[in-house]
Each structure stands twice: as structure tokens, then as C-alpha cells.
């Protein structure tokens, strides 16, 4: 079994996150998502809009993730002790999109994983980001906001990827015949932990 690790803030859960989890899952058999806590994120980026519990609930609701854990340590800290000895037991490979990730000191966050040949990369979905979402909220009624910013298109190359389509079709209940169907509707705008909770309740 190939164990994949993906980590991040995952604030204001959006389609870019979902597709990142899907692409990471396709790289192995078991996907673990490491959720960075708010105090660590605030040091390097900004204070998350959603708290740790809310973001954790969102990840637990994603069908592509097999396990979610709170992770205070960097990949380097998880992989090596103070003497540089390999100590990681959580994953076989680290996965990330093809956009550069640099730490506060200018060093590649995944340098150790790359050196140990334990790094896998997938194509990042363009147009979706938490920063973009925040901008859309702030400029909601402003003429400054351009239409192509407001409705970012999901990369068709990923949606039309045969491997992705096959994987998606295999997840979830396969035999729906004679099963009770529950219908729930809503706008589900800025999908959040409350949405996940009500959908989980309806499913149960």
C-alpha cells in the first residue's frame, strides 16, 4: 500500500482543495491530510478565517481523504530527527501541486522529501485559491471585480482525465437499487462545516 501525505491550511474549503485531494489520492492508495493549526499558519501567512475544528470537519467530509490529522510539524521535522536520521512512519510520499512552495527562510518546504525521492507532484487547478475567494467576497458588489475572476473555470484537462473519471466513479456506494434516497437542497455557497454536518446527518 502506497501512503500519500498532503498538508496545508485548507481555509475556506473550495474546489481547488477538492481537486488537490483527488490528484493526490491518484498517486497512491491511502491519503492522509495534515491540517496545519491556526497559530502556525498565522506566523507564515495570516490568521485563518475558519478555526481548526471547522477546517478539520471539512477535511473529514472529503471522500478522497482516508485520514485527517492535526499536524504542527513540517515535513522536514516529520522525516528527520536532529541528527538527520530518517524517522517518518506516516507516509511513503509527500504530494503537492506544481506551484512553488518556499518557507520563510527561502528554502523549498519539500527539499528533504525531494532529496529522499519521496515527493510526488500533480497539476494544480488554476483559478481557485483562498486568496481569490477573499477578494471575491470583499469586492462582491464592486465593478472592479472582473467576470473571469468571479467565475473561475475548473481546468478541463483534469476533468477530462480518464484516470480521474474512473477513480471518481469507483468512490461511494455502488449498488443504489432498492435504497432509500434522501434529497437535500441549498445554495451551499462558501461550503463550510455546517454544510458538512447537515449532509452527514442526512446521509445517516
From TrEMBL:
Coiled-coil intervals, chain numbering: none
Any Pfam family: CTP_transf_like
Pathway it works in: Lipid metabolism; Phospholipid metabolism; phosphatidylethanolamine biosynthesis; phosphatidylethanolamine from ethanolamine: step 2/3
Keyword set, alphabetical order: Lipid biosynthesis, Lipid metabolism, Nucleotidyltransferase, Phospholipid biosynthesis, Phospholipid metabolism, Transferase
Lipid metabolism in keyword set: yes
GO BP term (any one): phosphatidylethanolamine biosynthetic process
Domain Cytidyltransferase-like: 6-134
Keyword match Transcription: no
EC number(s) stated in the UniProt entry for this protein: 2.7.7.14
GO CC annotation, single: cytoplasm
A GO molecular-function descriptor: ethanolamine-phosphate cytidylyltransferase activity
NCBIfam families associated with the record: cyt_tran_rel
Family: Belongs to the cytidylyltransferase family.
Protein name per Swiss-Prot or TrEMBL: ethanolamine-phosphate cytidylyltransferase
Source organism of the structure: Hamiltosporidium magnivora
Upper taxonomic lineage: Eukaryota, Fungi, Fungi incertae sedis, Microsporidia, Dubosqiidae
